[in-house]
Amino acid sequence: MKVLAVDTSTVIATCAVLDEENLLGEFSLNQNFGHSENLVPMVKTLLENLNLKVSDIDLYAVATGPGSFTGLRIGIATVKAFAHVYNKPIVGISTLEGLAFNVRTSGIIVPMIDARRNRVYTGIYNWENGYLNNIKEPTVVEIDELLEHLDGNYNNIMVNGNGIYIHRDKIKDKLGDKVEFAPYIQNSCRAASIGELALIKKEEANLNNYFTLIPEYLRESQAQQNLRKRES
After folding, report:
1. Which residues, listed in sequence order, are joined to residue 140 by a DSSP beta bridge?
2. Which residues of the chain have pLDDT under 70?
3. Is the bond preceding residue 41 a cis peptide, omega within 30 degrees?
4. Are residues 158 and 196 in the same domain?
5. Is 23 helix (H, G, I), strand (E, B) or coil?
6. Is-contact 71 35, C-beta < 8 A?
7. Are residues 56 and 85 in the same domain?
8. Cβ of 32: how many Cβ atoms within 10 Å?
């Protein structure tokens, strides 16, 4: 089964093609949200280099957020269009789960994506019997509140994601020896992780289709907040 996976939830646009347990190719660009111009050419280039067509794909996978509102819409709309045209199944994967999937550790994994205003998108995950478990649902939270929770409940903590670059000093000061920072390569969103998770989840009864798949924003966009303020 060939899988085309896409993640555009952060500044990095990434796409990958997997064939069951084999990663056939992966393409990532950090172009500061140039996803509308880059994504489709990236997919086209990747498929051409693999001598594949979009119609050869059996399953589509896409990161559903949280993350950039515009980036998420671009990635999800693109993959939904492919799935619709070729009438193929589609799986939505949490961006945070994809980030956590990058890391292997005996403790907990806490991915952090910058949500601005001293907040992060985050969740808490761990590995058990070869499976990644979500032990705290994705949320948006003040970084100080998150660190207080981690300090009071866990000792072996691995953090990753772009949020750690912004809050690194604060994380280290609060958690000390309890925390480790993932290496750079594990802090970036990877389409390969989204694709592998999609293969794991493809048999679940609650799979999305190209009509039902929606982004997981976790908060209102700034435009929505401004509109609500004007209406109140």
Report:
1. 121
2. 33, 205-208, 220-232
3. no
4. no
5. strand
6. yes
7. yes
8. 8
Same domain assignment for residues 13 and 120:
no
What's the pLDDT score for residue 227?
40
Strands 59-63 and 90-93: parallel
Q: What domain range is 146 assigned to?
A: 103-186
Beta strands of 31-151 (E only): which ranges? 59-63, 90-93, 108-116, 119-128, 131-142
For residue 164, the surrounding DSSP H or E stretch is helix 163-175
Kindly state the tokens that stand for 125. Answer: 């995950």
Q: Output the domain CATH number for residue 213.
A: 3.30.420.40
- The model carries a pTM of 0.92
Same domain, 73 and 40: yes
Q: What percentage of the chain has pLDDT greater than the value 70?
A: 92
Tokens of 148: 């207080």
Structural domain count, the chain: 2
Contact 94, 63 (CB under 8 A): yes
